[in-house]
Design a protein that fits this description.
The structure holds 2 protein chains of 2 kinds. Chain A is mainly alpha-helical. Helix content of chain A is 72%, strand content 0%. Chain B contains 9 helices and 2 strands, in the order ααααααααββα. In chain B, strands 1-2 form a two-stranded antiparallel sheet.
């Protein structure tokens, strides 16, 4: 339970898709002029990430990883298909997006109308593929956590686009220097927001950055070890010298 | 250039400045920002994109008449994904350390909007040679920004270029550090990349007023 909670907060705040790894920046910049459209796209991203990350987790676990084909029989155990993960992940994402679009159109036309335009856009949103690839490199252990990771990353992205859209609506009334208007000021605001989000880094255990003290202490202990070794060696030398003298 | 007609030369020249994929077309931002803390990673990333975009544009342009319009996105994704797998395997074989630094961002070339954007906007409607030039031009325009951002972030952030200490040694206080210069650790953290790109856009648009957006 605790690890679910930690992953949840980590993916939303500490490893925020937009501010920490810059995923999905293209649509983040292009679709953040109005809050209402930003909310639509953000919801679609949460949904698609929640579907594709667990799916790709299954693919990775039972098809792609080194030795993942062992369930087919012992002679398949040595295959490592992980080089195919890019093409398989993107195929899953593209088909899932298509499928979701068809299903939503059939069963909930009102949701389709508010979400529909954004769904095709999402197939090429780097946040979606990035979610799957990070899921792979971080070696998330079970499918529950994979689902959690997908949804919470999506929520992080949603928060980011909502915030920037709200700021952009307000900043329209401000006197921004002409060359910075539009794209330039959006970049700089996002940078400042990112710096703000950096402060969440210390909220959790912060195990992703190695604490400097331990490094220096290990260096020091190594130094001490070396000195002790030297002393022992010197003593031994002295002893053998004395022995030689006595003889 | 006698080899290229004037029109063809413009295909390469335009994306370098006035139609830059990052600062004007707003394509391919994701990878541009995440890996520019070091100059070396930026250069490798630029070369990878150059390869994928150059070859991909030619392939798409060659098969543009036989792709059914409805499934063209999936066809494009398959072409890009195959090319990116090649790049990834080459990097893992010859530059393993670097491929670790770039981590998932090599894979993310697939969804780099520059690539899909150029396929859709250019390669689907033009011949192979023109598409090739367009691909090279746009990849170079992308690379230029990457290298500029990487240069400033590595120089100001760690005082090095390509890992070489160009400003002196911060520990033994030689070079600039002897007169009290300090590295700006701020430039290493990811959000600084956004601010550097913002400043590049500012400079570019102040020089060429036609590019200024209507608020």
């Amino acid at each position: 339970m605790l690890e679910h909670l930690e992953l949840f907060f980590r993916s939303i705040f500490v490893d925020n898709m937009v501010f920490a790894v810059f995923l999905g920046m293209c649509s983040y910049l292009a679709v953040s002029k109005k809050v209402s459209t930003a909310v639509g796209l953000g919801a679609a991203v949460i949904f698609v990430l929640g579907v594709t990350v667990p799916l790709n987790w299954l693919l990775d676990q039972y098809l792609l990883q080194d030795g993942a084909l062992a369930w087919l029989g012992p002679e398949y155990a040595e295959y490592d298909l992980s080089f195919l993960s890019f093409i398989l992940f993107i195929a899953t994402i593209a088909t899932m997006v298509q499928l979701v679009e068809i299903v939503v159109e059939k069963f909930s036309p009102s949701l389709y109308n508010s979400l529909g335009i954004f769904l095709p856009l999402i197939a090429v949103n780097c946040a979606i593929l990035g979610g799957s690839l990070f899921m792979q490199t971080r070696e998330i252990p079970d499918i529950g956590l994979a689902l959690n990771y997908g949804i919470s990353s999506g929520i992080g992205w949603f928060l980011a686009i909502l915030a920037i859209a709200a700021i952009r609506e307000k900043i329209r009334y401000s006197n921004v220097p002409a060359p910075l208007r539009g794209l330039g000021i959006t970049f700089i605001i996002t940078g400042l927001m990112g710096i703000g989000f950096q402060s969440f880094g210390g909220m959790l255990t912060g195990d992703n950055e190695p604490p400097e003290e331990t490094q220096t202490t290990t260096a020091e202990t190594q130094k001490e070890d070396n000195e002790i070794k030297k002393e022992i060696e010197d003593k031994e030398k002295a002893v053998s010298y004395n022995d030689a003298l006595n003889k | 250039m006698a080899l290229l007609s004037k029109k063809d030369a413009n295909l390469i020249k335009d994306p370098l400045a006035d139609n830059n994929p990052i600062t004007i077309q707003v394509l391919g931002i994701c990878s541009a920002l995440a890996i520019t803390a070091e100059l070396k990673a930026s250069v490798v990333m630029a070369i990878s994109v150059l390869f994928v975009l150059g070859v991909g544009n030619v392939v798409i342009s060659l098969i543009r008449n036989i792709i059914p319009a409805k499934i063209r996105i999936i066809v494009q994704l398959v072409v890009v994904a195959s090319l990116v797998i090649i790049v990834d395997q080459v990097l893992k074989a010859f530059a393993y350390e670097l491929s670790k630094t770039l981590s998932v961002f090599v894979g993310l070339i697939i969804t780099n909007c520059i690539i899909m954007g150029r396929f859709e906007a250019f390669a689907l409607g033009n011949g192979p040679w023109k598409s090739f030039l367009d691909g090279i031009g746009n990849a170079l325009g992308y690379g230029v920004i990457l290298v500029i951002v990487g240069f400033f972030r590595e120089l100001l952030g760690s005082g090095t270029l390509f890992g070489m200490k160009v400003l002196g040694d911060p520990v033994t206080k030689t070079g600039l550090y002897s007169i009290g210069y300090e590295n700006n650790g701020f430039m290493i953290i990811p959000p600084a990349a956004l601010i550097v790109v913002g400043i590049i856009i500012w400079v570019q648009r102040s020089r060429n007023r036609e590019l200024i957006e209507e608020a």
